[in-house]
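User: I've been trying to design a sequence by hand for this structure and keep getting stuck. Would you show me what you'd pick, starting by listing the structure so we're on the same page?

Assistant: Good idea, let's start from the same input. This is the structure you sent:
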């Protein structure tokens, strides 16, 4: 939500200074950004408490109790979370013992255990790591930042010749994105991670392929015809669908499928993939638009469709499941609501993708 709010504030800040006849036209947005960053950093340093789960996992029980008190979590809920964490830690330790075929399999939780970054590639979690990295990277290859960064260029290509009207149009899209993100946050735990990712991906791919098809068929004209308005409306619809599906669900999923010992490392790696593809999209979009009016849309649409297909086959549902149930799902053990991915035949995976098997 704050990310989309930042888009709105950033856009209208730049829009308000674009006509300043000095270097302040670009300095003012940077000054405001630096001030906001400083305020956020100070507030985080003063008021942000460490994670009680993280402290407990490292044996710092007294500090964890203080953190629970600051967060005003009741003792009943606190014990429930700690018991769940102890059960999950025991599963992780047994899982690691299985992966290295160790004769000693002590299920007793060992909070002080330290894990290497390369634990994200161990046999029991590498599938989850790969899935998180793939989904976070492909989130950017859907083309969302191509739309956000180059909205004025996209609107001009569709026929809004005035630079000011095109600039304002991209501001309206930022407002729309912010508005739809509010209900999306509350509905994320009602829709489920899997349906929002698959159906959202199919819908976004269809929009991108529609826009690309219109340009490829020379149906978009700068001064007349309905084609340009279809493109403009489709850009808005694409941004809305992204915000209510992939923007929220994928980032949640990438973190919650990880076990405690690799969550920080695997999530960092996934976000690194996200920012790397973000860089590639930002660099390549204007180049592709200059060479072809439709190629970039087919590229983004194809990437989004491939992602939806992969998730339809390999993405278990995690909504409403505890950490140990998610662990079971990925380890191939029976869990409430479905089965994990280990041991699933190709035929069964295809049947699941078609919706005939619940996850």
């Amino acid at each position: 939500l704050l990310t989309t709010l930042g888009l709105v504030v950033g856009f209208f800040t730049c829009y308000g200074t674009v006509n300043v006849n000095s270097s302040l036209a670009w300095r003012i947005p940077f000054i405001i950004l630096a001030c906001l960053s400083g305020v956020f950093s100070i507030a985080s340093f003063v008021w942000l408490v460490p994670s009680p789960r993280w402290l407990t996992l490292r044996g710092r029980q007294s500090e964890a109790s203080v953190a629970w008190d600051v967060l005003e979590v009741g003792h009943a809920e606190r014990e429930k979370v700690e018991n769940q964490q102890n059960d999950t830690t025991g599963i992780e330790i047994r899982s690691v013992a299985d992966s290295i075929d160790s004769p000693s399999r002590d299920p007793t939780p060992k909070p002080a255990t330290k894990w290497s970054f390369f634990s994200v590639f161990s046999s029991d979690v590498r599938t989850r790591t790969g899935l998180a990295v793939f989904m976070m990277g492909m989130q950017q290859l859907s083309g969302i930042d191509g739309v956000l960064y180059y909205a004025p260029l996209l609107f001009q290509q569709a026929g809004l010749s005035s630079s000011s009207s095109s600039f304002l149009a991209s501001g309206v899209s930022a407002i729309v994105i912010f508005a739809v993100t509010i209900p999306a946050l509350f509905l994320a735990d009602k829709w489920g991670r899997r349906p929002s990712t698959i159906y959202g991906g199919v819908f976004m791919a269809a929009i991108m392929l529609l826009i690309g098809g219109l340009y490829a068929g020379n149906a978009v004209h700068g001064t007349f015809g309905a084609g340009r308005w279809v493109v403009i409306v489709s850009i808005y619809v694409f941004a809305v669908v992204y915000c209510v599906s992939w923007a929220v669900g994928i980032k949640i999923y990438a973190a919650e499928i990880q076990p405690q010992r690799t969550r920080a490392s695997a999530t960092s790696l996934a976000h690194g993939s996200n920012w790397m593809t973000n860089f590639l999209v930002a660099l390549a979009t204007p180049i592709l638009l200059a060479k072809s009016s439709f190629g970039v849309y087919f590229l983004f649409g194809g990437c989004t469709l491939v992602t939806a297909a992969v998730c339809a086959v390999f993405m278990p549902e995690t909504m409403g499941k505890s950490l140990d149930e998610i662990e079971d799902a990925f380890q191939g053990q029976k869990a409430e609501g479905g089965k994990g991915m280990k041991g699933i035949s190709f035929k069964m995976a295809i049947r699941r993708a078609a919706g005939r098997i619940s996850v």
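That's my pick for every position. To get oriented when you compare it with your attempt: The longest helix spans residues 163-191. The chain is about 70% helix and 0% strand.
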